[in-house]
Amino acid sequence: MTQIRSTAVPALLAALVLPLAVSAAVLKTDVAHSKVSATFKQMNVPVEAQFKKFSATIDYDAAKPEAAKATVQIDTASLDVGDAQMNDEVAKKDWFNSAQYPKATFTSTSIKPAGAGKLTVAGKLTIKGRTADVTFPLSVKTEGARQIFEGQLPIKRLTYAIGEGEWKDTSMVADDVVIKFRVAADK
């Protein structure tokens, strides 16, 4: 198993988790070249926010991708939407409720080959104590000695009660959120 710690970039709301996979030998995340982001629309304007902290435990062998496992945790209070007041707001009960649910977690249940440099990842995403099954494509490539894992995970924020009370209204903040991630890992 490989323990990976990283700081990440852009992501909001349903933010959550970003599923990752890395190489067979012990890998170390290159923090400067890794990021996690989520894009959503607020009043129909695209917004991208950042999670500053996440950690991942990944066991991946390119020769046996179906035996791979990944667990990713995101510190929900590390969300940076570019404004200190808004950062405080999204950590509150109606949004991430970071005091009670400090982590969003993804745990893979299967990782399957999907063509050259491609994998299909399935797993469980938990945010605010609510868990849903998710599936997304993941690309894997080598850049020098680094493995690069990139993907996007579309989710619905209301599935995870992100935006309660008056914030359930999707005319202000859309229900659709896309979590994007890029993890660079050295062998």
UniProtKB/TrEMBL annotation:
Keyword Signal recorded: yes
SUPFAM superfamilies associated with the record: YceI-like
Signal sequence bounds: 1-24
UniProt superkingdom: Bacteria
Keywords for the protein's UniProt record, in alphabetical order: Signal
SMART domains the record matches: YceI
Location of the Lipid/polyisoprenoid-binding YceI-like domain: 26-186
Entry protein name: YceI family protein
Organism placement in taxonomy: Bacteria, Pseudomonadati, Pseudomonadota, Betaproteobacteria, Burkholderiales
